[in-house]
Amino acid sequence: MANWKGRLSVLAFGAAIAGIGYLLWASGDRVGFLFELIGGACIAVSAMLPNSLFEKTVSFVGRFW
């Protein structure tokens, strides 16, 4: 999953979760902040990690998903 399609899917997932979190936070729901953090973490993982660490992170999170 370290190819560009895998990274793009994690980036899109993170952006969607962060967007939902922003809308929740703007409407006054405090759990929106947690959604923003999770989305931001997904964006950071897809943008900054090298291929080997990206694969390990995705497989680790996949165990609990």
Task: Describe this protein's structure.
- There is one protein chain.
- The chain is an all-alpha fold.
- Helix content is 85%, strand content 0%.
- α1 runs antiparallel to α2 (31-48).
- The longest helix has 23 residues, at 4-26.
- The chain is elongated and about 40 Å long.
- It starts with a helix and ends with a helix.
- The mean pLDDT is 90.
How confident overall, as mean pLDDT? 90
In terms of per-residue confidence, which ranges show pLDDT below 50 for 5 or more consecutive residues?
none
Q: Which oligomeric state applies?
A: single chain
Radius of gyration: 13 Å
Beta-strand residue fraction: under 5%
User: Total helix count?
Assistant: 3
Shape: elongated
**How would a textbook summarize the main sheet?**
none
Helix content: over 70%
Distance between the termini: 16 Å
User: How many strands in all?
Assistant: 0
What are the secondary-structure elements, in order, as H or E?
HHH
Structural class call reads mainly alpha
What's this model, at a glance?
This protein has 65 residues and is mostly helical. The chain is 85% helix and 0% strand.
Task: Describe the structure using short key phrases.
3 helices; mainly alpha; 65 residues
Write the layout of secondary structure elements.
Elements: H1 4-26, H2 31-48, H3 51-64
